[in-house]
């Protein structure tokens, strides 16, 4: 039996389906099915029963899963602590990030972490829906989550890293590129490249448009901030993204907005964090989360006007 099998079983119990659990943990469905069958075969018991509403744990399964949750958490922390004491931190660190947050800061922090602990395996995935991140946090699967608001009270330790400002991205040659800061009301009548309706990014954009009495014409919806920036750059419409989410080569098309649009950046770390989580948190706290303008944006704009 392996800890990975325990985590798979816990995920199936959470969502009631092997397929949904595989999507949740970003693994192949056949692989998860094989691991669950192997676990049941080794234990000699049936962990799940099939019902009209999905898979539910059996009586024996519920008892097993209670101990599996304890084992997964304890084993990960014990292994990490032992290795850290020898300055040879290894094991697996599971990190989730709300789509669009820390696009520049998180990779820098993770690169520094891996440089310090090259035997540490880090798994990162982005999730556009903050409700899904909160659900994962409650299950105790994640070691650190980067979100715009802390998880439910008691589920994790929240650390406010800073506030990230949003910028508007305009197409090449757009009339408002001459300004160093764009007033949102000046975007009246502009077509918008937006995000999936249940995503946090679209929630910020929707609130900003409403607060400034703008009735947007939505021309496209995308799931990635980088895609929205590229489409806006090619004249599809304008978009609003966190400053750090503007890819290299597009900063000259990004402008801060007035009134200010920003959101807090919070690192939610599991209670009783291990040394890997603590090390990553320290690196994230050193990052600059409050840069109002993407690096090089105004310089590029000024050069273009000269």
TrEMBL record:
UniProt xrefs under InterPro entries: HTH-type_LysR_regulators, LysR_HTH_N, LysR_subst-bd, WH-like_DNA-bd_sf, WH_DNA-bd_sf
Instruction: Tell me which UniProt keywords the record has, alphabetically.
Output: DNA-binding, Transcription, Transcription regulation
* UniProt KW Membrane keyword: no
**Matches recorded under Pfam families:** HTH_1 (PF00126), LysR_substrate (PF03466)
Transmembrane helix as UniProt keyword: no
All copies of the HTH lysR-type domain together span 1-58
The similarity annotation says:
Belongs to the LysR transcriptional regulatory family.
Protein's recorded name: LysR family transcriptional regulator
Source organism per entry reads: Nocardia jiangxiensis
